[in-house]
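Async update (no meeting this week)

Hi team, since we skipped the sync, here's where things stand on the single-chain job. The sequence we agreed to prioritize is pasted below, unchanged from the tracker. I ran it this morning and attached the output directly underneath so nobody has to dig for it. Comments welcome in thread, and please keep replies under the output.
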Amino acid sequence: MKLLHTDKAVVGKRVLSSDTEPDDSDVLSQDLRARNHVLMPHHPGVIDQFVGPGLNHCISRFLGLEHEPISMVVGYDHDNDGVYLGLVDPTDDDWLTAITSGWWASPSEAEL
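Output:
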């Protein structure tokens, strides 16, 4: 899997988290955290918006975490080479694997 580059970053683009460990730092819901429903490695999301001058800071909404800070206010900046170190640009197969695995793949479980 390759990291997302600015030339591919557009609103609506499918992305995956490039985190290698679960991360609860930007999930405030104690209910979600208690069930370990936090940002996971290769967690699927969609670019929602860009803020700042030009194509700079992107906000991605992650499945099951749409109302948490990780999806509403915390975003990702690209480096000097135009690479978003926090986001992966998935292939169709990567995307399918990501949306069908993990706690977010079961709507009833994610909505508890």
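Quick observations from my side:
The mean pLDDT is 90.
DSSP finds four helices and five strands in the chain.
Reply here if anything looks off.
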